[in-house]
Amino acid sequence: xxxxxxxxxxxxxxxxxxxxxxxxxxQVETKSEVSKEVLSKISSLSLNTYGVTxxxxxxxxxxxxxxxxxxxxxxxxxxxxxxxxxxxxxTSEQYRTTNLVAAPRTIxxxxxxxxxxxxxxxxxxxxxxxxxRYNNLGLSIRFTLSFATSTNADIVVYREPSQTGAxxxxxFPSGGAPYKWVQIFAGLDxxxxxxxxxxxxxxxxxxxxxxxxxxxxxxxxxxxxxxGTAGIGAVHIPGTPTxxxxxxxxxxxxxxxxxxxxxxxxxxxxxxxx
Length: 274
Known about the structure:
By secondary structure, the chain is of the alpha+beta class. It contains six helices and 14 strands. It has a five-stranded mixed beta sheet with strand order 9-8-10-12-11, with helices on one face.
């Protein structure tokens, strides 16, 4: 998920954005406490337990989803969390465990066109470009794309009108299937189709199992914060950096001049996993 850096949002200058942003559509429960059992499970999945927030929301198909917002950007339903493996099950670009999309597989994607949640022309162009980039790699997972009001697909990409910032939100795969719901925030329409492509490709990256490449520092955000690895269940992907990769499409933050292109390390990681 993505959003403007606080200092940029305040000063209204430049265009540096986060890769993750809290979703206004997600209605946070009044109870702010998260049980020790839930935090322990999140920690065992190599995720940071700081600032975990419970949420309750209604998806486009009318289904209800209760869960937790982790690392400020990853939506994990209670069912999803319970089904994920302890001590492993999250994939990052430099480090992988076991929670991936089962391959070979064709993943159907719908760019939603209904009502206030319809993707704009700019967003649709960005989505098409992102899908083309994935498919051009000849991976063992392939994406089909259609634009419709239906939600009958493996991944549904839709606009969230209540979010005026630029960014998006997604989650991790479960049971061999990609995460279904990709929210694209309304403010992203103010940026280039290339930047829309970058954000959408990033969120789809989460859906198929990728974490931020700079999870260990969030350096791309000007921070020095470890998102958490728990020290277990993380296996380095051969050929990818263990340090900071300043141009990866999966780094935690990005800027307004992004093109949406994968760098060579992104391509190496995608080809290794899929």
